[in-house]
Structure to design on (446 residues):
């Protein structure tokens, strides 16, 4: 196998042959600085030549363990066989026609698959887009047409994207919103359930949020409530049990569209098809992207057929939405998920990660919380004995992991959450080795 062939055949090992970044990556970084806008940041500046299974190989020949999956995208593994096979077949046949001009089966096949795997067994339809933000925008468009109302309810710590409307829906200012306003109107923020910080039951936290939506926005104005069933960028917060179902019941009783943003949590990541499945919550609309297509850009809104069909013909779409190559990749990713029971694999990975993280918590009093579901786990770092965020420690540990050849990511409103999103194709021994590195990184930054 040569250095540019990725996929599961790559040697599954952590191998450092240079410092991180090595000379080839440093040279490439110089070119990046000359030609790429500075606003496009990079977490770990090694330039990639191949990836697969649980590793990423860089231009210097270093092999790093991947605990990020390109931010929850390559859940089926990088260059997964069914994805590359179907993509190759599709690019040889045709690369684009625009579904709005002349349609093709791949698009319809993806929509049919979404009907099957998303929560609920009611009549559903889907529309395909390019990015998560675009899916969220379209879920709002559909909700507004369906209800004849304008207002959008969102939550503290939410992240929904970087377009104008989704920036308004996103909570955190820096780096996502700062200087980019004015933002779209009619977006209202309610408090989330954040067990570490509010100590409320799911029901009590839901009552608090509903009070804001009811009294400060007014149900007669409210088109939809958009919620991440497990926060992504906002810190992997899992709302207390009962929060989501109470919110869903209230939305249903008030004729408010409940939109589950499963862009980060979807497609087997949490140990089920979707995070909503863990509590039996059935949203009216679901937005998906990231893990849907093994690394190719594809996103979707899936939901109740009568809501989806409320939009006039031609009202939904876009030049590239549901591109045939991206659809082929999605069908390949779904094939991988089913063939290898990746939801089951995510549960096993989750148990392994929890064991490592609970052990670490017992040893390190800076770890205030261990949370998440399946292969979507995180630890929140706070000054010992408090809930005061310790972002500096999170950054130091993150950097030490990178230097030792493990790709890790932080997140959270205060940047003090360390999150773990390994590809579901990662072998157990490599996962254990990565957590050995995380443990050493805590020791070396104490
Ligand atoms: C929950 C959630 N919604 C929306 C988005 C935006 O997706 P995209 O970056 O594809 O526009 C993200 C991306 O991180 C996300 O995690």
């Amino acid at each position: 196998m040569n250095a540019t062939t990725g996929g599961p055949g790559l040697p599954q090992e952590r191998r450092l042959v240079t410092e991180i970044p090595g000379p080839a990556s440093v040279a490439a970084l110089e070119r990046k600085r000359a030609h790429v806008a500075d606003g496009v940041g990079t977490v770990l500046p090694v330039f990639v030549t191949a990836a697969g299974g649980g590793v990423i190989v860089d231009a210097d020949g270093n092999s790093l363990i991947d605990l990020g999956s390109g931010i929850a995208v390559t859940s089926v593994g990088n260059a997964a066989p069914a994805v590359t096979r179907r993509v190759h077949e599709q690019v040889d046949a045709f690369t684009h026609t625009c579904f709005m001009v002349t349609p093709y089966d791949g698009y319809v096949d993806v929509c049919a698959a979404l009907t099957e795997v998303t929560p609920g067994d009611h009549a559903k339809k889907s529309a395909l887009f390019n990015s998560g933000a675009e899916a969220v925008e379209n879920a709002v468009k559909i909700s507004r047409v369906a209800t004849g109302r304008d207002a959008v309810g969102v939550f503290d710590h939410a992240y929904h994207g970087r377009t104008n409307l989704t920036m308004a829906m996103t909570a955190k200012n820096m780096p996502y919103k700062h200087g980019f306003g004015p933002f779209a109107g009619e977006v209202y923020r309610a408090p989330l359930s954040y067990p570490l910080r509010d100590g409320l039951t799911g029901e009590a936290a839901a009552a608090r949020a509903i009070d804001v939506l009811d009294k400060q926005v007014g149900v007669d104005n409210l088109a939809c409530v958009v919620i991440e069933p497990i926060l992504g960028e906002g810190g992997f917060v899992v709302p207390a049990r009962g929060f989501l179902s109470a919110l869903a019941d209230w939305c249903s009783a008030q004729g408010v569209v409940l939109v589950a943003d499963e862009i980060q949590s979807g497609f087997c990541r949490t140990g089920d098809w979707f995070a909503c499945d863990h509590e039996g919550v059935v949203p009216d609309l679901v937005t998906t992207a990231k893990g849907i297509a093994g690394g190719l850009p594809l996103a979707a809104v899936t939901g109740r057929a009568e809501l989806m069909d409320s939009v006039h013909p031609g009202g939904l779409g876009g030049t590239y939405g549901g591109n045939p190559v991206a659809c082929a990749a999605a069908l390949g990713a779904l094939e991988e998920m089913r063939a290898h029971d990746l939801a089951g694999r995510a549960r096993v990975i989750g148990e392994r990660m929890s064991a490592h993280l609970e052990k670490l918590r017992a040893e390190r009093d800076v770890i205030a919380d261990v949370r998440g579901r399946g292969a979507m786990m995180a630890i929140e770092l706070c000054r010992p004995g408090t809930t005061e965020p310790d972002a500096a420690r999170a950054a130091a540990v993150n950097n030490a992991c990178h230097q030792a050849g493990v790709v890790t990511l932080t997140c959270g409103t205060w940047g003090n959450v360390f999150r773990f999103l390994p590809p579901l194709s990662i072998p157990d021994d490599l996962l254990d080795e990565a957590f050995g590195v995380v443990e050493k990184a805590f020791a070396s930054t104490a």
User: Anything to note?
Assistant: The chain has a mean pLDDT of 97.
